[in-house]
Amino acid sequence: MPHYTLYGFNNSASTSIHWILAELAPLGATYDIVDINLRAGEQKADSYLALNAKGRVPTLKFGDKPVTETGAIAALLAEAYPDAKLAVTPAEGFDAHAFYLETLVYVLNSHLPVMRDWMYAGKDGAEEHAHGVRLFTLPRLKANFAFFDKQLGKTAFIAGDRPTIADFIFAPTCTWAKGLDVIAARYPNLKAYLARMRARDSWKAVLAREGVDPQLADWEKPYLEL
């Protein structure tokens, strides 16, 4: 297997890939992490754009080959380590495979964009419009959490009875801001699920490296009353 180099930033989209790599470490995955300080704009530096022309994290080098996009990176890692069973394969039956794919695509296409709108409302657009963006986003955020809470009343993990890359992409989003964690904790099945995920040794390894400990931001407080 190649050695991996992860380019990312603490408590961001790259945390999902860090977590998957930590999960795969007992199976022999080796990796280094190169910090790309998003607050300092390092993702727009020419040296980084040469790796990822989109100017975003994560980027993962598979040996010398850089790959971008969280879903693509995660899927390639799951394929590289089939014994980890981080993906549901066609061999496990059509229903299980289809449900896994539906869930993964929902996380990538429906959940992550809502998270980004919430977190970057004042950065992707004008700050004076951020409040309106978040008011629009909040019902969608709650609807997503309610959807997963209902599913987690039936299965231990969001795509079935074992953790898959869908879980390692979804679960860290609740650490992106303290307010997200507070809202998620209002859904009992989701709260219990996050506790299970965070009890994993691989998450503890991520915490040791990234020090994820989000503080409640002033801008979040009014939305927690809605």
From TrEMBL:
Name of one Pfam family that matches: GST_N
Domain called GST C-terminal: residue spans: 81-216
PROSITE patterns recorded: GST_CTER (PS50405), GST_NTER (PS50404)
SUPFAM superfamilies: GST C-terminal domain-like (SSF47616), Thioredoxin-like (SSF52833)
InterPro entries xrefs: Glutathione-S-Trfase_C-like, Glutathione-S-Trfase_C_sf, Glutathione_S-Trfase, Glutathione_S-Trfase_N, Thioredoxin-like_sf
Transmembrane segments: none
Residue ranges constituting the GST N-terminal domain according to the UniProt record: 2-85
Assigned protein family: Belongs to the GST superfamily.
This protein's name: GST N-terminal domain-containing protein
Organism (species): Vanrija humicola
